[in-house]
Amino acid sequence: MKDQDAHAASGNPARCYIADRADGRDNNFNLIRILAASGVLVSHAYPLSWGGAVGQPFETALHGLSLGMVCVWIFFAISGFFITRSFDRKRSASSFLIARALRLFPALAVVTGITLLVAGFILTQAPASVFWAQAGEFFVRNMLLFKIQYVLPGVFESNPYGPAVNGSLWSLSYEVTCYIGVLICGILGILGRKKIFAVVTLLFLVVYAVAMVTDLNPRIEQLTRLGLPFLTGMIFYIWRQHIPLSPILFITATALSIVAWFTPLFLPVFAVCLSYMVFFLGYAKTPLLLHYNKLGDYSYGVYIYAFPIQQLVAQAGVTTPIVNMVISFPLTMICAMLSWHYVEAPAMQLRHRKAQKPLKTKQAAE
User: How far apart are CA 73 and CA 270, in angstroms?
Assistant: First the structure.
């Protein structure tokens, strides 16, 4: 069904649906993403300053769900929607894969390369021969994502948290796995068949339920937890003509999250409700906030540069989380801005040259 049929299908022409605002770029998702990336920085400041035994903010209050993980869920919910939209608009496996690769890997290659150079020539306490013997493997494994190498010889070994160089990269392999799920659904035509997609959703929920009550492979368990907000974002796109952007639903989602806190179902309920709240706020018509879109999408850069910069600050002797945040945030933002304007946006332009549709660097990234 076309987006313009939404009102006719609903029988309520006055109500606003996701489909009414899904086509344009006048939204707040760039702002939400940068806030989420900054939230990860804030969350990591505590264990990086005080050691891994220290919990991250909200971890106790949210049944083991830290501020950092809430922010990662926000990323996955937004990705589920826009990655599904990306395939729906391209309808080509090759175009989809190229777009996704250009969005993730150029910036990842640059941050990994810079990390190796800074670590190898400035930070490492290990002999040069020992360090550089592992540098190639570090680069390759971190680019492949699925067997990430977090440690380099002689780097950050005396830090409170330990020697992890860039602990934030762990979520990227799960995100790529979700992308592959979208690709498979798209190739099989499932994205355009709501009844079949509903069956796929039900099967996922069965696996999620099994993971809640039994011990599965840790990677499968983590994939189900991250996959739920991602799947919710996919559902919001596929049923965008039927999902209203309603303050009443926003309040209801908030209330459901509070009620679910007292039950074993808090995490899945909160994942779905949080996803709805993100999209309500993302498509809220707030002209002042829309000005942020003129700057660019710095969230990915913040996410991949924050951890090593925070580890550098910790190595300098800063053991107070607030001070770590104050020093690390502007440095991270500088790196993120440079990454966006000189790596990420130019890389994304490459995917449009074939179609002769250049992308302005200030537009929101899919």
Answer: 10
Plot region of 214 (φ>0 → left; ψ -120 to 50 → alpha; else → beta): beta
Residues 87/240, Cβ–Cβ less than 8 Å: no
3-state secondary structure of 146: coil
How many other C-beta atoms are found inside a 10 Å radius of the C-beta of residue 342? 13
Collapsing DSSP to helix, strand or coil, 163 comes out as coil
Give the three-class secondary structure for 145. Answer: coil
What is the reported pTM? 0.91
- Reduced to 3 states, what is the DSSP secondary structure of residue 127? coil
Tell me which residue of 218, 361, 244 sits closest to 297, measured CA to CA: 361
Integer-rounded Cα radius of gyration of the chain: 21
Q: Distance of alpha carbon 324 from its chain centroid, rounded?
A: 23
- Letter for the amino acid at 43? S
> CA 360: distance to chain centroid?
22
Q: How far apart, in Å, are the Cα atoms of 318 and each of 61, 119, 125, 150, 328?
A: 27, 19, 20, 21, 11
| Residue pLDDT tens, the chain, 366 long | 444 444 444 445 568 999 999 887 889 999 999 999 999 999 999 999 999 999 899 999 999 999 999 999 999 999 999 999 999 987 789 999 999 999 999 999 999 999 999 999 999 999 999 999 999 999 999 999 989 999 999 999 999 999 999 999 999 999 999 999 999 999 999 999 999 999 999 999 999 999 999 998 999 999 999 999 999 999 999 999 999 999 999 999 999 999 999 999 999 999 999 999 999 999 998 888 888 988 889 999 999 999 999 999 999 999 999 999 999 999 999 999 999 999 999 999 987 665 444 444 444 444
